[in-house]
Amino acid sequence: MNTQNILHAVRYALIALTLTSGVACAVAPPVDTKEKTTEEKTNKETPEYVAEMKAKVFSKEAVSVQNGEKRFNQTCVYCHGHQGSGGKARKLQGRDFDSDYLFKTITKGKKRGSLVMPPWKRTFTPEQRWELVTYIMSLSEEK
What we know:
- This protein is mostly helical.
- The chain is built from seven helices and two strands; from the N terminus they run H-H-H-H-H-H-E-E-H.
């Protein structure tokens, strides 16, 4: 057996072990590697900019919910379940959330016992995080 086959076997064994162990793992897309100046990064997290993005996202709510659902299905469904039905993390359906609380939780992450929700501040822009908020809030509405 050559070295490449051994590495493949080890990789698949680790994946199988992870999947069957019940350990909660958040899957995050790669952080944008384009170099941004410190000023650009800071300007996107100012309270004024965040408020501007909130107003923008909520003004086009139908599109924002669709964008948020797509992002949710790519990154959040692993823990929160299909359409927020629950899983390793709490159920999101039918819960009454404050939009600012959701934004803060998505931005900073959360730790509850051994479960850890990673912070998404470095991965998603404020606009993308607000889109996630609109989708999660849509789950609390009666279908």
